[in-house]
Amino acid sequence: INHILIDCGQQKLVFPDVGGLELVSTTKVLKDFKDGVVCFVIIAQEQKKDSERQATGISVVEDFADVFPDEILDLPPRREVEFSIDLIPGAGPISVAPYRMAPAELSELKKQIEELLERRFIRPSVSPWELQCYL
To answer: Helical H runs in 4-133?
Structure first.
């Protein structure tokens, strides 16, 4: 039997240690309902506050959370040395026809690109390997 405490004043459910919980699959609950078993089912989902970081599951990010800013306001500053990787010296990109878009789709893409350029989240590129997208 599960013993979950309901704290009405704090509007919280207090769960005991994991060893005291009985987890029941959806299949078992449906079978019990069909068999006429009286039971109470609570489906709960943890709500994270907006201020909480979403870095769960990535060990490096969790270990060094203080290094990563909450918001990225700008691109990194320009450096003295531009870094590039030549996969095969002198090789160029494969010629592929540009993706065709409906006028409404193209208009929305232009709007989003302009917004990203203004916010300095992206910048123009002169790389021959850049995305083949014609506006």
So the answer is: 26-34, 59-63, 103-118
Total-model pTM? 0.32
Q: From CA 6, how far away is CA 43, in angstroms rounded?
A: 14
- Report how far apart, in Å, the C-alpha atoms of 5 and of each of 11, 13, 21 are: 11, 6, 12
What is the DSSP pairing of strand 5-7 with strand 12-14? antiparallel
Task: List Cβ neighbours of 51 (8 Å cut-off, separation of 6 or more).
Answer: none
Backbone φ and ψ for 7, nearest 5 degrees, come out as -100, 95
Nearest to 127 by CA among 86, 88, 79, 99: 86
Q: Rounded to the nearest 5 degrees, what angle is found at the Cα of 84, between the Cα atoms of 81 and 90?
A: 130
89-123 confidence digits (pLDDT tens):
777 777 777 778 888 988 998 899 898 888 888 88
CB 65 within 8 A of CB 53: yes
* Per-residue tokens: 86: 């030549």
Residue 55, classified by CB atoms within 10 Å of its CB into exposed (0-12), middle (13-18) or buried (19+), is: middle
